Amino acid sequence: MNICPWRDAGRRLEVFGIPVMMFSLYLAWFQWPETMTLWIVTALIAFFKVISIFGFTLTVLWQRLIYRLRGQRLSGRPWWYRKFFE
């Protein structure tokens, strides 16, 4: 079975399973070039790699945070309409 190579075009770019955007944290190290900052950034990237192994990627964590802030009730009407006209 031939699989079209364009199907993989939507995947995020990863290096050793770590999203490339996480490596942009090393830009903080260039602003404050200390060894402690380097270790903190490396530990943060390692932490996100470990939790992504268990299925909690940055996208999943962000969606869960938005779900908690938004609440469980979704309505098609604005809050002011529900408050004054229903």
Descriptive report:
- It is a single chain.
- The protein is 52% helix and 5% strand.
- The protein is mostly helical.
- The protein has a domain at 17-71.
- Strands 1-2 form a two-stranded antiparallel ribbon.
- The longest helix has 19 residues, at 35-53.
- The chain starts with 13 loop residues before the first strand and ends with a helix.
- The model has no long low-confidence stretch (mean pLDDT 80).
- InterPro entries: IcmT-like.
Primary descriptors:
single chain; 86 residues; mainly alpha; two-stranded antiparallel ribbon; 2 strands; TraK family protein; IcmT-like; transmembrane helix
Task: Give the distance, in angstroms, between the N- and C-terminal Cα atoms.
Answer: 57 Å
What best-fitting shape do the alpha-carbon axes yield?
Answer: flat
Number of helices: 4
Share of β-strand residues: under 5%
Please give the largest β-sheet: 2 strands, antiparallel
- The sequence of SSEs as H and E is EEHHHH
